Amino acid sequence: MEWQQLQTEQETLQGQLRNANRLREQRFLIEGQIEHAQQEITKHSTEHNQIRMKLDKLEGFSFMNMIRTWTGQQDDLRAEKIDKAAILELKIKEAEKMLKDLTFDFEQVNQKLKQINEKQLQEALNILHIKKKNYLQLHEPEVAHKIEQLANEEFITKQLISEIQEAEDAGDIALTKLGQAAASLHSASGYSTWDTFFGGGLIATHLKHDALDKTENYLHSAQIALQRFHNELLDVQDMSTKSLQIETDGFVKFADYFFDDIFSAWSVHSKISTAREQVSRVQDDVHNTVRRLQEKHNRALEYLETLKMEKKEILQL
Known about the structure:
By secondary structure, the protein is mainly alpha-helical. Helices cover 89% and strands 0% of the residues. The protein has helices at residues 2-59, 63-71, 73-114, 118-139, 144-191, 194-197, 202-237, 249-266, 272-315.
């Protein structure tokens, strides 16, 4: 009983220290993402202003503009630049929303870190290690090293199970948000036909813009949920045991592609169907990743039971 109590206390202390280390890693990761969002805002804002200046020139009088008008090129140029400006506007808005959400996540991580006294935890853990060493030398000197190895592997496996569960939860949230975005895109796609069949008008235009704004918000919710899922996957990927390896590289790369590309496809009514296809592909990817996590979860639980049985058999010798 005394050994089990010492082991439980050690796992608690190690878990708190591991959590502090994990939070530091999360903070560093989010810092990079915040910096990226700020760079995106600057880059897209600069490009947007340049396009606005070019559009102003197109509107102004010049002989070249007259020639373009005669040849029908000016409307094409305006349409192309307006399309690019619309894409950039969406990307700027999305980057600003991401910056706000990531800043909130960063502050939350900092608050959690402030509540952990790592020095005190490490001192308590050192004292506990001495107690465990003395206990094993007194009661089980011949198998002390093996028991300690099993205890450490058991702790790592429990931590891995906890990390996998957190990633699964984040994946489930991402799937929910993606489902909402997909449903909203489906609804929004119908609004692009209103001007043709119902003659447009202020009411139709307002409803259409309102629906598209809601869809944009749903897409952002999916985006930040995917970012958080991505971060949880990196936590899982950083952990492994002798018998369990977690591979998530494929999804991480796909997530980066989705973050950057979805708004290019979504910016114009005619491209909403493309955005729907992209969301569908991401849903499949997230679903498959969650399924793989569940498989790893089950394997980790089985491995944990094996470790417990092996340790129990040794202690009963």
